[in-house]
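Look over both lines:
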Amino acid sequence: MSDFIAQFVGVGHQYKKGAEIFKGATFNIEPGSFHFLTGPSGSGKSSLLKMLYLGLKPTWGSIRLFGEDPLTMKPSLLPLLRQQVGVVFQEFKLLDHLKVIDNVSLPLRVRGIEAKRSYRDARELLNWVGLGDSLQAYPATLSGGQQQRVAIARAVITRPQLLLADEPTGNVDDDMAIKLLHLFEELNKMGTAIVIATHNQRLLERSPYPHLTIRRGTIIRTPKRSKP
């Protein structure tokens, strides 16, 4: 494995309408690390996450993921690279025609994992996030906070090398936010690198993890601190 999960060197992006984000973002994400991604609304947090899961190409600069350059590698190999990344979207992106347990087990099923094991793992995760009694429910019948937890369970079920979460606690109360943080921490202990974009000040204040802060188009890294 590369010494870094991700390497950004002088990365910037400019949308077609002229809006520019980043003027030269340079930072590394180490294997097994845990970072919060912070910055004011509109600073580019979601765009940065999109670049990390290859949903957005930089206008300039260079990116390497897992030691590979996704901009020059064969398109047929990109899906293998993306499989190493789990994503929790703000919009959830659940499949409304599938029950909760089918949504969560789907990433395992598409990889050829047998149904029995896929459902067992999905059931365990849904119990952990407090949705053990909603396995057979459809997403549309759940609250926004419940859908958020389903999306998180689906993203972590494959134990990706890198997990990206865009405001994962935005639709839950503080107690559930702390529980979800513990879930991310347990996954991190098993070796997954975590990047969480958040505005949750309580979460930031109680956690020792370093911050990647977007400020005036650059990335400022605040080092790890001792727990309060």
Summary: The two ends are 34 Å apart (CA to CA). The chain has a mean pLDDT of 88. Residues 93-159 form one domain. The longest helix spans residues 174-189.
